[in-house]
Amino acid sequence: MLSKEVFLKQITILKVFYTRWNFNDKDTTQMNVWYQAFAAVEDNDFERIISTFCRTHIHAPDSPNEILMILSEEEEKKWMNPEQAFNHVRDLIRDYGWQYGRKDIYSGVRNNPALLETVKEFEYDLREMTVNDQFIPKRFKDAYAIKLKTMCIKKRDEKLRLAYHLHLLIYVFYHLLYLYLLL
User: Fold this and answer.
1) Would you list the DSSP string of the chain?
2) What is the rounded CA–CA span in Å between residue 159 and residue 153?
3) Which of 4, 49, 92, 117 lies 20 to 30 Å (CA to CA) from residue 29?
4) Which of 82, 95, 17, 27 has its CA nearest to residue 56?
């Protein structure tokens, strides 16, 4: 969870880096909305994505999502690219074969949900694929790339949803506290 000290320090860095950035750090609503957008991000991850954003973007961020996209892109880079994924599966099939090693092939891709899903979807095609077949590898790589992108977007959306629910919880708590103090 992002600490407020790290958040304020990084916002200050953004303000210094982008001198014409129209961000009012005196406006508590704006600060709260931006903080809640990043609440689920760890301190060191937030510092890294702000640093990356400053290195790679000419203009100041228009919204927190623009900065969060860096996190999503980094998540994608953790996984194999489509070419590596196909070669990995092809090597597993060559080493274990489909008939006796189906469990070995699935366990070889178990750590990558997008790849596991793609292998299951293309199991018949991969089993029947010949050495000179160019169509199946291309379809496999395209399907894997789509599943990988979808998986990374879902992970980013889960983090955003968590931050939103945390924001709502804080909002309700403050209002209940306010009502309690009025009574």
Assistant:
1) ---HHHHHHHHHHHHHHSTT----TT-HHHHHHHHHHHTTS-HHHHHHHHHHHHHH-SSPPSSHHHHHHHHHHHHHHHSPPHHHHHHHHHHHHHHH-HHHHHHHHHHHSTT-HHHHHHHHHTHHHHHH--TT--HHHHHHHHHHHHHHHHHHHHHHHHHHHHHHHHHHHHHHHHHHHHHHHH-
2) 10
3) 49
4) 17
| 85-131 tens-digit pLDDT | 888 887 777 776 665 455 656 666 767 777 788 888 887 787 777 66
37: left (phi over 0), alpha (psi -120 to 50) or beta: alpha
The tokens describing 108, both together, are: 């070889």
Q: pTM of the predicted model, to two decimals?
A: 0.51
Query: What residue type is assigned to position 121 of the chain?
Result: E
How far is residue 68's CA from residue 41's CA, in Å, rounded to a whole number? 9
Residues sharing a CB contact under 8 Å with residue 54, sequence separation 6 or more, in sequence order: 13, 14, 17
